[in-house]
Protein 1
Amino acid sequence: MKKETRVTHHPKVAIPPGNEALVDPIYRSVKYTYPTIESALSVDARKEGFDYTRDANPTTRQLEILCAELQGRDDSVAVATGMAAVWLAVIANLEAGDRVVFFVEGYRPIRAMARERLVRFGIEFSMLSVHDHEAIEASFKEDQTKLVVFEAPTNPMLQVPDIEKIVGFAKRNGVTTILDNTFGGLHNHGSYELDYFVHSLTKYASGHGDVMGGAVIANKDKIAKIKPWAINMGSTMDPGAAYLILRGLRTYYLRYRRHSESALTLARHLEQHTRVKRVFYPGLSSDPGNILAEKQMHDCGGVFSFDLDADGATTWAFIDALELFHTASSVGSTESLVAPVQLYFARDLSEAEAGVAQISESTVRLSVGLEHTDDLIADLEQAMAKAFA
Ligand SMILES: Cc1ncc(COP(=O)(O)O)c(C=O)c1O
């Protein structure tokens, strides 16, 4: 064989039977082959085999199986981002003329999906408060309402929806439930009879802020319904991303627990602070969502928001003065982040909607990382001193 040919047909290194790599390889190959066309068409090949990575890939499949297991369901589809996961679960379950229920307390790009995009395809929406059970039930009773998309807790104000109630209303009225469980995490809420979970794996699952991904998790029949859409739309996760997320998941429980403990320490500190009007964190016993959160979740995660007793300019000065907390809009990675809530997450809300969502110019969201809490508290204090000087 000429060397020009050899560089395309590499030597094979087979690991002997019984001799295993402890870390699984990344299957980067886009294409998979069989020795004959007939074997490629066999029942086993069609059921278990791999053909083309947009359809399925062994590394991505490993992540899908793990995500399903952690969330307590039997299948999942991994996609390129969390937003791709939300889109997949939504679009594969709707037809023109259907109505979807969304919430003002939710993540802004999910509201944009309804307001700016779904309407172009004849899909209507209701934008309600996640606490307004009467309106939720009334909307579910309407014939066209087919789907509800909600978060627990919500981003950015950590509101805790009553999952049992919402699922109950939905079941009685034939509405499909989609829970964006990004903030709750893969270990929470699995016991509720939700139809689909979606996650941004960009956050706690991968945990290091260096990879993007999303997953839709459900039972097999529901995944079978949506998977062809993911394949056809090409929203497939890259196997390199799947590998990094699998690696991040090795420390998922340790990190989520530490994020939660540190967030609680900081939330308690700020709750007592003279410059803070109110802290929004369901882990605090004073929070209106605390009792529900304790029933629904094991721990509350690393994100919380608070209102400074200040105007917008002072709030921005406080954010700018922070040194360990970088200003950025993601959550769930090792480093702490801060975000001005109104500017980053609520520009689309009317005054009335912002009131319902409890967002003002002095609202700040923190994503608490894995640093020592003494250093984070010292950083908050020095920024307070500078902003209020
Ligand atoms: C609750 C929630 N859902 C979905 C997403 C979208 O995830 P991604 O950025 O991976 O698309 C985010 C991102 O912050 C989020 O917070």
Protein 2
Amino acid sequence: MGLLSGLGELGLKGLDGVDLYEDDSKTVKKEETPAPAASINTFDERECLFGKSHTCPVCYKEFKALTVRQSKIRPAGMDRDLRPRFKNFDPMKYDVILCPHCGYAALGRFFHTITPPQAKLVKEGISRNFRPVEDKEFITYEEAFLRYQLALGNAVVKKGRAGEKAYLCLKMAWILRGRREAIEAGTEKVAPEECATILEELEQDETELLTNALDGFLNARQNETFPICGMDESTLDYIIAVTAMTLKKYDLVNQMLNVLLVKSRLTPMMKDNCIDIKEELRKIKNDAQ
Ligand SMILES: [Zn+2]
């Protein structure tokens, strides 16, 4: 997967293959196969959404963005890397705000904080070629992923910080994991003969995004001040440790655990997970001997 492949359908093909952190030259390019998205669900996601008014800080036009009604969110636990899980539907699909007029897109946290020089860069790098998107009553995982890609494209064009890009990559990995789980649970229907291939591709793409997230977080940890994307140092170090474990970068895991386990600011759940990871590492080392 090119991290930004798919943006061609929004008129932004030129962004495909762009280098995320500039000094890091390992963006892997692969054509993405579009999967048939037919989501049949008795639960009506539209009832959980409303159109929230925004004024775009880039083109100054007004628009309404699909927004989740907080009262409709039903938490259902958390993955080890702090990805929140939910019953019925995944509110994270709606975390990117997209201006349908000019193509400026960002996570809600960053949407209104763009500086005038950055807005100029977005106008030149995104708006000039952007094809407006149609209004939707709700969006599928695939449509959500495209919005995240656009947000990442915007972050690159506006020369956003490594932390913001890394955080987007992490959330994109979570969106793909959410889609994979929805397919496995049967709430998102795909053609049976394509199911195995789609699941495998989603897993590979998730790994690629986690790799990019890890690179960016390590960069941000050195060069940015906390909080980074709302995360304090312990939380970011924890996410680095868990992600490195998923990616089998055991030296880095060890290094982060040594820092984390002497700190007291982890939540009890995070601390327990660190102890589990330390034990898993020990077993892996023993098995290797
Ligand atoms: Zn706009």
